[in-house]
Amino acid sequence: MAEDAEVPGNRAPLYWGLAFVTAMFGAGFGARFAGLGGIWTMLVMLPPMLLLIPLVRSTERGGDFGGCTSPALKKYNRRGLIWAFSYVGALFFAISVNKAWQPEGPLLWLIAVLPALPIVYFVWSLHRYLVEETDEYLRMRYVGQALFGLGLLLIVATVWGFLESFKVVPHVESWMVVPVWAIGLGLAQIAQRVRGS
Amino acid sequence: MRNRLKVLRAERNWSQGDLAERLEVSRQSVNAIETGKYDPSLPLAFRIADVFGLRIEEIFLKD
Lengths: 197, 63
Prior knowledge:
The complex is a heterodimer of chains A (197) and B (63). Chain A is mainly α and 197 residues long. Helices cover 78% and strands 0% of the residues of chain A. Chain A has a domain at 7-68. In chain A, helix 3 (52-66) runs antiparallel to helix 4. With 63 residues, chain B is mostly helical. Chain B has a single domain, classed as Orthogonal Bundle (434 Repressor (Amino-terminal Domain)). In chain B, 62% of the residues lie in helices and 6% in strands. Chain B contains five helices and two strands, in the order βαααααβ. In chain B, strands 1-2 form a two-stranded antiparallel sheet. The longest helix of chain B has 11 residues, at 42-52. Chain B is globular, with a radius of gyration of 10 Å. The chains are: A mainly alpha (197), B mainly alpha (63). The A-B interface holds A 1-7, 66-70, 134-138, 140, 197 and B 9-10, 13-18, 20, 24-33, 37-38, 40-41, 44.
């Protein structure tokens, strides 16, 4: 038979992913330790963000090599880069404007909502992926990952919410829902890789 | 559900990649179907049957 097909493992995305998470947390804690505030923290966080580019590229290369990618998935990954960098840019802009001009009224509302717009784009891109994906197995895998992320988010948010109500833990801003969901998505991806499914 | 994909591929000297290309799905999908980790939908099962020139029940078997 022609070259038969165990789907080969590819660790490069895992290493880039680890490098990204480590650099982001390292920069975040470093900035806090150095006593940096708003805009400066954002500036320090920008270089680690660039690691997203090799992460996405290595994921695509790995997908091509392992036969586990599709045009829709590639498009989704590219859209992921767009919203991630737009998010950082919008956050940077909103913090800068707020600090420099202390806007009030409708302008303050507009500035405050600005960083959320890339997340709206992200939700749209997630919807588009599920519509555009013609490979039903890849689509099923992604739905499973997304549901795992959602389940984790519901549990973490509910448990944390009650702990907060009983004043056991400090308040956490609600925009943390997306990172928590993304962590769940990542954990589900790792679990699928380990299980070989 | 069991299937005869591996045997049918072998008879035609096709790799999983070759079959994936014919079905317009990822190689991982073919691997998952072949190893019984994933049961295809009816439309995909029909496409698989068409590619092999067989009926669905000649490829997919009840446990």
